[in-house]
Amino acid sequence: METPDFTETTLQTAMANTLAAVTAQVQQLNQQLKSAYLNQFAAWAADVQAGRSSNSNPAKPPLAYVVGFFTDSTNPRAQWAYPETGTDPVCDMPPVPQPAPPYVPPVLPEPDTVRNVPAGDTLPVGYVMTAPDGSRWQKHSSHTPFGIAYYYVRLS
User: Fold this and answer.
1) CA distance 32 to 49
2) How far is residue 139 CA from its own chain's centroid?
3) DSSP 3-state percent helix, strand, coil across the chain (nearest 5)
4) pLDDT, tens digit, 9 for 90 and up, residues 46-72
5) If you average pLDDT over residues 96-105, what whole number do you get?
6) Running DSSP on this structure, what letter comes out for residue 79?
7) pTM of the complete model beyond 0.70
C-alpha cells in the first residue's frame, strides 16, 4: 500500500489522500465484518450440529462497506470519500448444517425376575399374586430421589 502524502495542501491531493485512507479503511472494515460473521456462524453451526439449536434461521451475511462520495457544501468541486454500507453481502453464506439426529436411548433388557407395576395397580406392598403361568410375584417398593418406586419380584 502506498502511503499518502499528507504534506500536500491542494484540494486534489487532500481528496486523493482521503480516498486512499478510506479505501484502506473499507478493506479493514470488510475483513473485520467477514471475520466476525464467520465466527458467529461457526458457533451457531456447532450448536445446530450438537442439537442445541434449530437450523431454521441462519444469520445472513452483513452488507459490505464500499467507498462512497459526497459533495462538500462549501466547495462544489470537492468530492470527499467516506465508508458507507453497500448493497452486496460481505461474503457468501456458508452451507447450513443439518441438525443432529435426536438421541434415542438404548432399550435396556428387563430382567426376568423383576417387573414394573402396571398402571392402576393399588395392591399393597408385600402382596403376593400368582400369574397365569403359575409363577408367584411379590409387590415391593424402593425409595428413589424421585419418590417411591413400586415393582414386582418373582418368588418362584
Assistant:
1) 26
2) 48
3) 25, 30, 45
4) 999 988 888 888 999 999 999 999 998
5) 86
6) E
7) no
The whole-number pLDDT of residue 4 equals 62
**What are the CA-CA distances from residue 130 to residues 26, 112, 138, 150 (Å)?**
84, 15, 9, 17
Q: How far apart are CA 123 and CA 126, in angstroms?
A: 9
Residue carrying C-alpha cell 500536500: 8
Instruction: Tell me how far apart the alpha carbons of residues 25 and 64 are, in angstroms, rounded to a whole number.
Output: 12
Question: Could you identify the residue written with the cell 439426529?
Answer: 101
Sheet of 136-144: strand order equals 114-116, 147-154, 136-144, 128-130
Could you give the residue ranges of the DSSP H alpha helices within the chain? 11-49
Q: Which residues pair with 69 in a beta bridge?
A: 81
Straight-line distance from the first to the last Cα atom of the chain, in angstroms, rounded to the nearest whole number: 90
CA dist 2 → 32, 69, 78, 80, 98 (Å): 21, 21, 22, 19, 46
d(CA 33, CA 17): 24
What contacts 82, CB < 8 A, 6 or more positions away?
22, 67, 68, 69, 70
